Structures are given as structure tokens and as C-alpha cells.
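Worked Example 4.2. Consider the chain below.
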Amino acid sequence: MVPARHLVPGDVVLLEAGDRVPADGRLVVTETVEAAEAALTGESHSGAKTTAPAVDGLRAF
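Applying the procedure from the previous section yields the following C-alpha cells:
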């Protein structure tokens, strides 16, 4: 476990089901990934995540 304040761009982070992610990041390899973002977006449903690159600062789905 590493506190988010110690993460820097380029760090590789391994995640498991149920992990909380207190930082932005880019997915490189995934299987089925969904994130509960209610605190950020107000939506009650989890959003699917992909390894697709962001487009103009927005996530590509």
C-alpha cells in the first residue's frame, strides 16, 4: 500500500477488486473494470473503464 501523495506520473499501480483509487491514472491492461464515481459525478451507476486513450481531455468509451 502506498499513500496517494507518494504517487508520481509514470508509476505503475496494480489494482484488485474493491480497491479505492485516490488518484488519476491510465489503464494499460484490464479485464472487466467498472468504477463507482458517485462522489465525482453524482451518478448512481458504476461506469465501465477501458484502455482507450483520452480524447481532448475526455474519456473515450
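Strands lie at 33-35, 47-49. The chain has a mean pLDDT of 78. Compare this with Example 4.1 before moving on.
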